[in-house]
Amino acid sequence: MFAEERRAAIVEILKGGNSVYVAELCKKFGVSEATIRRDLAVLERMRLLKRTHGGAVPTTFGLESSFEEKRVQNLDLKAMIGRAAASLVNDDETILLDAGTTTLQIALNLRGRRITVATNCIDVANAFIDDPAVEVWLLGGILRKKPRSLVGFLANEALNALHFDKVFLAANAVHVKLGATTPNMLEAETKRRMLMAGEEKILVSDHSKLGLGGICRICDLEELDLLITDIYADRGMASEIERKIKVLYAGEGGAIA
Amino acid sequence: MFAEERRAAIVEILKGGNSVYVAELCKKFGVSEATIRRDLAVLERMRLLKRTHGGAVPTTFGLESSFEEKRVQNLDLKAMIGRAAASLVNDDETILLDAGTTTLQIALNLRGRRITVATNCIDVANAFIDDPAVEVWLLGGILRKKPRSLVGFLANEALNALHFDKVFLAANAVHVKLGATTPNMLEAETKRRMLMAGEEKILVSDHSKLGLGGICRICDLEELDLLITDIYADRGMASEIERKIKVLYAGEGGAIA
DNA sequence: TTATAAGATGCATAAACGAGCAAAATCAAT
DNA sequence: ATTGATTTTGCTCGTTTATGCATCTTATAA
């Protein structure tokens, strides 16, 4: 592996929103800490990341990052779900991607594809910023600063005027009876509109959110066409869910129906 | 095998997204390392690959594009203009900020203020990502990846529904006769809509753009309320412009009328 | 504050590179 | 075929780059 490749891979890791440790990178690439530090130094000069004591964090391009570095939970699971979801997308389709860490993984797996992607998340839009193949539409709206999503009137109005082949929705909780839920009312409303704007409605959620209930209902599971979760989902709960909606289980090798 | 064939074959190998080693290519084609290096040099000049120590990687590797952080021209002047512009904004106002490096400087000088900012630029929105005081609205639209701005139908529709106390517009060229212009038609259309959505219409432009003409006209200078430029503006041109529009000259200490 | 982990710096080494030159291959005319 | 011009190729050698190690300095946390 070339230095160039290694550096690109480091940037790729950080694009998922995670921070990385020097030791972690050493192990992953089988090189010394000195080499990793040199890599991080050049990447920092390129503004592709920000070094910290022990590793590096993504650049929140702009200013001294307020990056509250809580690591993304279940990132590897989300990456698997992202790969599985991306594999469902065909060339020349129009895709609507919800805001969220899982949908960001879908975005990363769609880079280079000949598709049109609309989203209400600036991180998702940014995943394609150096990708000439993908046409990106950003829905407008009020900027929610924590999840970096756009919600509210502008987003809803924009969604009224648009239609997509597939919509990939994220939810904070997925429950057999309560359906898909989220803690924020504005988010819920925008998510409902997103569903309406999509031909094929796909919900993505790693297994940790299954069985949980939130405050604001987005929709019942019957209203959706497909749920993509991971192979660590509880079998009992899974079979209950499967009575209401088709489920895909993403794993190392690929997805199983 | 001809050199041409060999080079085509090398490009073909890289097309799959793989990297190649010089030694590997030597063996494969039965030629010396010097020959392979010459091939790689030729192909790199044709932008068909990117050389690394030991081999080459495909050009679509990502790092390169992010790396071209072309440095902003006249950044210090733009910062002065940004300070001057920001000083015109009052608390509780609603502000519309155009996309551009100068308007980004305005945004940086508005951090912490109790205002609402709408923009069609993700960099401007990001300037407030860690600022709880400023409420940010992002207009939707097609993401233009080089200037990182949002234009087109969604942006225009959103602007129809909104109204702001002040709009700060950026232009690529400002001319006494031709007015404010920009090279991109979609941008021009969205900028026109932005003007319509603002009560007070303010154009910002450092002196290097004065006297230049672009392809797409945004508006005549008479349609605007104020031009903010810097103190290095040519006096002759400045006095001509002043016959059509009020001008503010930003300098080290502050702005002079 | 001190203890500990992480980072910076200088140096050594091996691999890769670039330039120049000569040999070999190719081509264009006779 | 022969000759000469041009291009391509391979080789050598001095230079550069990438990397790891040892040592010294700095940052973080108890």
Model description:
2 copies of one chain form a homodimer. In chain A, β5 (116-119), α6 (122-127) and β6 form a beta-alpha-beta unit. The first copy, chain A, has an 8-stranded mixed beta sheet, with helices on both faces. Chain A has 2 domains: 3-57, Orthogonal Bundle (Arc Repressor Mutant, subunit A); 75-256, 3-Layer(aba) Sandwich (Rossmann fold). The first copy, chain A, is globular. In chain A, α2 crosses α3 (33-45) and α7 (153-160) runs parallel beside α8. Helices cover 35% and strands 25% of the residues of chain A. Chain A is of the alpha/beta class and 257 residues long. Chain A has 9 helices and 16 strands. The interface between A and B is large, with 45 and 44 residues. β7 (141-144) of chain A pairs antiparallel with β6 (135-138) of chain B, so a sheet runs across the interface. Chain A binds a DNA duplex (30 and 30 nucleotides) through α3.
Task: Provide key terms for this protein.
homodimer, 257 residues, alpha/beta, Rossmann fold, 2 domains, three-stranded antiparallel sheet, 9 helices, 16 strands, DNA-binding
CATH architecture of the largest domain in chain A: 3-Layer(aba) Sandwich
Radius of gyration of chain A (CA) equals 19 Å
Shape of chain A: globular
Spatial order of the strands forming the largest sheet of chain A: 6-5-4-9-12-14-15-16
User: Could you say what the CATH topology of the largest domain in chain A is called?
Assistant: Rossmann fold
Helix amount of chain A: 25-40%
Summarize the biggest pleated sheet of chain A. 8 strands, mixed
- Beta-strand content of chain A: 15-25%
How many DSSP-defined strands of chain A? Answer: 16
Count of separate structural domains of chain A: 2
Count of separate DSSP helical elements of chain A: 9
Order of helices and strands of chain A: HEHHEEHEHEHEEEHEEEHEEEHEE
Oligomer: homodimer
